[in-house]
């Protein structure tokens, strides 16, 4: 979250171009001509040591010769000159540079490193190098070598490819779509995708953000920025390399299933980003999101003069998860009165091939007023009977009047004029009606709107809490893993795995490790005494897939059978894998559950996003069936349910014929426990439970593999180093004693605390609420509280305090970092009837300790002057208190850490 000085780069008041060439065919000359053609309104200077003027514009020899300090320096000079130019600009006080030049290299001693060092010395921001440039229509700046300048609009485009950005500009010019900004980031020497997501998320001129991504450099930073942006506006991404294979062969089934693109897909889903498959679909998103708001539901009414195309639209709508709208009785009666008797009488509303403009208008007016639909798609197939141009003009006029009457929110109207002339496209686009070449594109555009609304709802859902009875023995689990690593082993043995699962309350079949044949017989006899059948498996750290060497024998019922099977397994393994270290055999009780489903659950390691949770159909043919879904941890029960629901096998978990449904949430609970284990023990590299048997009684792990190794820190900041999404920081839970031996329990706020917050606010007076929120607060909506409780621990923290005796919430304190994670702004609220007992002081000390642990340099806050108690406490805690020069009723308080 580093929006520091980005506004200076993207909305500069002054610009200097360094490196423009006199040669007509050159990048520098193209950038100069584009800046000139766009008619940048601010100060502009040209720097070139060899030419006094270029293209009629006077040039100076270096930046020091300019008579103003440019906020933005655009560099098209040779790579070797770039670090020196940045240093010179920094000395003059320039905010940042756009480096169009390529060839800076990478690694120690490179021009890339020198440029970064020069920028950091002066706090400059850098975009590029090796990029197309930036195009900011709002300030008439085209600092790029693109062929065209986009018009002003409300879409932002962030692209790792200059060619993709140039293509978007050309497409937008034809469709009348405008942009709030287009930024190509090139090699991301400093400013990256996450920084720009944060910038455009806060930009009131931007309605939606489009991304073209090839690879993510900092996964945790990206996830934080994307999740924050997706809460406030649609974020759409197209990513190349969907068919790329993983870089290494995986040793476990979960590792094999977690392909690189599947992990990106899981990351985008967790962030609330809408993923599209190609540029055409990205264009459709731009067409839709740039013109209309999301509907309140997914019921689409279709108005058409061709029955066939209407049916095709319905087919695509249902396939993508939309709902063909019904027509209310009142609307049907009006349509009967306005249309010929041959109209379809249902949705799609087919008004027959000879329909003219007046018939379209009559039907559209009825559908706009009908509350049984959430949006309308108008289709037109051109005929020789009625003018398609006249129909388009009538539709746009009617939609315009409807929007005038419903300014706060208007029902979306979309259009597809098949084979339309450019003048029809321009008419529809000019009226702000999203329009598409085919009915398929139009339906996809509608579903993008629907998906965004669903994403916002999902991001603000209150997840169910895990049962209070689940308290893992993380310490014992760490000891098991640490012992294996200290022994130089990469894999846990079966008995260790069983004990590891037990520490997280995950059931596994009885399992014993036998070093020889006779010990295997002895363990088997114990299991026979319990009425169990036995299975033997080869035990070797070098043989990962046991069935590959015939290392599994099932259904053993006598000691003699066990002795023979053990002898045979060991002999066969030594023959087929003579280099393998054979430790013996695993003896397990066979679990026979005729109606159980075989599932696979596990953890895999991704080089970009760290730990990934995998779920799917289990068994020996797991890779062939390839029925799996992935999610980024941490998980709650709702996220685990969503993960399960994305697989085909999820349907088998329900009851069918004589097979009872799997015990509710039994599988989801195991997924949550696995995700928690990954947070607690980052030394777990891969984890594979296959199969996990699930039925109406619960779940049981039959076989599992666990790969371990020294923890490798992947992401900056605290929290699990292997998680791209920062997990719940349980290490900050505290039990504290206050005045009068009042005992409280303090922990980080969780999303499921929303009902607790609502109840707590009933015990806070209107006066205290006004002191906290600086305005009277009559109502607290779900959306408002969700924004408070759905924390991104990588950016913010809130501690919630409970009375240990009553269990009631008594206070909350929160801290939100600034864009460069150097300072945080605090806020605190206590139950009004419990003030004066030291709770406020304790919570403030805790949030100060937390800020120090995060490496923040200061804590600040705004306090009303009338809030004398808070101001006095701040002074005692060491805060500096100053009046706010812009707000006479407010004091700024600041504590240096």
Can you put this structure into words, describing what you see?
One of its GO terms (molecular function) is ligase activity. It holds the Pfam family Acetyltransf_3. Residues 744-897 form the N-acetyltransferase domain. It comes from Bradyrhizobium xenonodulans. The chain is α/β, with parallel strands linked by helices. Helices cover 36% and strands 23% of the residues. The strands form six sheets. The protein has an eight-stranded mixed β-sheet, with helices on both faces. A seven-stranded mixed β-sheet has the order 3-4-2-1-5-6-7, with helices on both faces. It has a seven-stranded mixed β-sheet with strand order 9-8-11-10-12-13-14, with helices on both faces. The radius of gyration is 32 Å and the shape is globular.
Ordered list of secondary-structure elements with their pairings:
Layout: H1 6-10, E1 14-18, H2 27-38, E2 43-47, E3 53-54, E4 57-60, E5 72-75, H3 82-92, E6 96-99, H4 111-122, E7 125-127, E8 133-136, E9 141-144, E10 152-159, H5 162-175, E11 179-184, H6 193-201, E12 208-213, H7 219-232, E13 235-239, H8 253-257, H9 260-271, E14 274-276, H10 279-289, E15 299-304, H11 307-319, E16 323-324, H12 329-338, E17 349-350, H13 357-369, E18 375-381, H14 388-405, E19 413-418, H15 422-430, E20 435-436, H16 439-459, H17 474-486, H18 494-503, E21 511-514, H19 517-529, E22 533-539, E23 552-556, H20 559-576, E24 584-590, E25 597-606, E26 610-617, H21 622-625, E27 628-631, H22 637-645, H23 666-680, E28 684-695, E29 698-701, E30 704-708, E31 734-738, E32 742-748, H24 754-761, H25 766-773, H26 782-789, E33 796-803, E34 809-817, E35 823-830, H27 839-853, E36 858-864, H28 868-876, E37 880-883, E38 890-896
Parallel strand pairs: 1-2, 1-5, 2-4, 5-6, 6-7, 10-11, 10-12, 12-13, 13-14, 15-16, 15-17, 15-18, 18-19, 19-20, 35-36
Antiparallel strand pairs: 3-4, 8-9, 8-11, 21-24, 22-23, 22-24, 25-26, 25-28, 26-27, 28-29, 28-30, 31-32, 32-33, 33-34, 34-35, 36-38, 37-38
